[in-house]
Amino acid sequence: xxxxxxxxxxxxxxxxxxxxxxxxxxxxxxxxxxxxxxxxxxxxxxxxxxxxxxxxxxxxxxxxxxxxxxxxxxxxxxxxxxxxxxxxxxxxxxxxxxxxxxxxxxxxxxxxxxxxxxxxxxxxxxxxxxxxxxxxxxxxxxxxxxxxxxxxxxxxxxxxxxxxx
Length: 165
Fold this sequence. Notes:
Arc Repressor Mutant, subunit A, mainly alpha, 3 strands, 6 helices
């Protein structure tokens, strides 16, 4: 008996629903959140559309729309199984780092636009001051996020070494 067959399928299903719900509460649309949670629970990190529909008890149309969202935001990739016409959806490697890196790039754009807003309103106005404080907050987050991503790369390397030992 392998570890995969020893899993309590009810517990895994409850985890998928609970984690999917938490992701939905953070802003990920509900169906993509459930599919993401389901993909995380597979050893291969890969599922076909039919497997997703069966696992989550959802319609093929729901799968289609949700995986379209997940591929658009680059969390999941669509692949073709060799010799098959079936699409397989898989978690991208290092997905959380990549998603956070994209947020880092977005923060640079937010800084630029907020600067334009401060200039348009005037830095000495109440609205200009409010926008400038907002800009400063996002600048702070941007500077911290870059160093956090660097620390994550170092931490991940050590963690991977420990897992292999």
